[in-house]
Structure formats: structure tokens, C-alpha cells
UniProtKB/TrEMBL annotation:
Signal peptide region: none
Protein name: ParA family protein
CDD domains: ParAB_family
Domain of life: Bacteria
InterPro entries assigned: DNA_Partitioning_ATPase (IPR050678), P-loop_NTPase (IPR027417), VirC1 (IPR009744)
Species of the source: Borborobacter arsenicus
Length: 233
């Protein structure tokens, strides 16, 4: 069965594309076939892929498609999705018209946040959209909030401490235990050098790889229903 994962947060640029690149790289490394769909008119994902191609650094097992319209997405999903183990859909920060159609296909929506009020609110919005679309279509798409670009000083802020009680207790969605730290390699991979998993194993890369493995394990747990929250029902 094809698993569809979308990255959505209408307020912010906290790392949707980066998170999907890393998750895609991890699945590909595990021998899965991965399609990535770029729904963002800024084309970050598509540009990354073109740059990777130019540098002969395409990741085996990953294909990237640019389909910016919802119609294009529908057609692509109907015709091609079942050929892949994973379809990862990247979405724009602002264009809300594509959010519902993307959720309608997704098994899991990940909302990356940096610890800023605006991005937390954006993630809550995304969760509410998932709940609404689930209700309207009788689907069971899950939702999780992913903390990204975390630094040690950030962890000492009041907002950081409030994230878990807000996300899990008040809103009632899932907060990934895995946090994505601020790391240079996550910036570097945007420059067409392939995926994180293709980089030479330095100490820094090893840490990023571990973080990503933990994230993918959590994603899989959430999808198989082992995690209690994130059901968005
Ligand atoms: N964990 C991280 N550590 C360092 N830089 C990051 C991290 N996540 C994202 N970035 C940087 O922030 C920028 C925005 O991230 P991106 O994934 O493109 O966000 P979005 O897709 O949500 O707009 C990227 O250029 C990337 O270099
Ligand atoms: Mg992006």
C-alpha cells in the first residue's frame, strides 16, 4: 500500500521541504520507492532535484514531480501513486486553496514549526484542516507537529516549554518526540548535493542521520497506529 505524507504549515518556512527531503532519503535508503510532489510555486523541491541532476547527485529510489495545480495532483495520484511505496507532497507556505485537496490524499500530515507563535498557530490551523477534511470525507489522515531548527538556547525559552502542553494537551494532536536540530548539513543539501543519506559520514552527518532515522521510525509508528495521539478524529 502506498503511504502518502504531506508537509503543511500555512504560516512559516520552518522546514517543510527539508523535512521531506530527509524522510525521502531515509525511505530510499531502506529500499523503498519514493515520489516527491512539489506543490509549491516557488519550486524549491524541483530546483533541488534539477541541481542534483546537474551535479550527478540524484538519489536512487527517489523521483521528483512538479505538479502545482490541484487538478494535476488528482490526475497524477490516480495514475501513478500506486507505483510507489511512499508519496511525499510538499506544499507552499501561503496558498491555502491547495491544502484541502492535499489532505484528502494524505495518510499523515506533518506540520514543521520553529518555536514561534505564528508557526505554532499555523500548525494548529493545519491540524484543524485535517480534522475537517477527515470529517467531510470519512478519512483517517493523521497529524503531527515537528519541532525544527532547534538550538540549545531555544530549548530554554518559555515558548519552547509551552509547545508540548499546547500541542498535545490543549489542541490534542501529536508532537513528534524527535526534534530536528539546526544543522548546517540541512542547509547544504538544498544545494543539489543529493540527500542527507548520500553525504560522507562525518560526526555532524552521523548526528543528522540518527535524528532522521528516529523521525522516520516515529512516522512509521504514527502511521501504523502505535502512537496514541495524532489521530485527528
Ligand atoms: N533543521 C535545519 N537546520 C538548519 N537549516 C534549516 C533547517 N531546516 C530548514 N533549514 C533552512 O531553512 C530554509 C527554509 O527551510 P525549508 O525546508 O525550505 O522550509 P519551507 O519548505 O517550510 O519553506 C532552508 O533554506 C534551509 O536551508
Ligand atoms: Mg518549501
Amino acid at each position: 500500500m502506498t503511504v502518502v505524507i504531506a508537509a503543511i504549515n500555512g504560516k512559516g518556512g520552518a522546514g517543510k521541504t527539508t523535512a521531506l527531503m530527509n524522510i525521502a532519503g531515509e525511505y530510499a535508503l531502506r529500499g523503498k520507492s519514493v515520489a516527491m510532489i512539489d506543490m509549491d510555486a516557488r519550486n524549491n523541491l524541483t530546483t533541488w532535484w534539477t541541481d542534483c541532476h546537474a551535479k550527478d547527485a540524484e538519489a536512487e529510489g527517489i523521483e521528483v514531480y512538479s505538479h502545482k495545480t490541484t487538478k494535476g495532483l488528482e490526475r497524477w495520484m490516480e495514475e501513478n501513486a500506486r507505483a510507489y511505496d511512499h508519496v511525499l507532497i510538499d506544499t507552499p507556505g501561503e496558498d491555502t486553496s491547495i491544502v484541502d485537496p492535499v489532505i484528502a490524499w494524505a495518510d499523515l500530515v506533518i506540520s514543521p514549526i520553529q518555536p514561534s507563535k505564528r508557526e505554532v498557530l499555523g500548525a494548529i490551523d493545519s491540524f484543524e484542516n485535517v480534522v475537517r477534511v477527515n470529517g467531510a470525507l470519512g478519512r483517517h489522515c493523521r497529524h503531527g507537529v515537528l519541532r525544527t531548527r532547534i538550538t540549545v538556547p531555544v530549548r530554554h525559552t518559555e515558548l519552547y516549554r509551552k509547545i508540548r502542553p499546547i500541542v498535545e494537551d490543549k489542541v490534542g494532536t501529536y508532537l513528534f518526540r524527535t526534534e530536528v536540530f539546526e544543522r548546517n548539513v540541512y542547509k547544504d543539501i538544498h544545494n543539489g548535493i543529493g540527500t542527507l543519506q548520500m553525504q560522507e559520514l562525518t560526526e555532524a552527518i552521523t548526528k543528522a542521520r540518527r535524528e532522521t532515522q528516529a523521525l522516520v521510525e516515529e512516522v512509521d509508528e504514527l502511521l501504523t497506529g502505535k502512537a496514541l495521539k495524532g489521530r485527528a478524529e
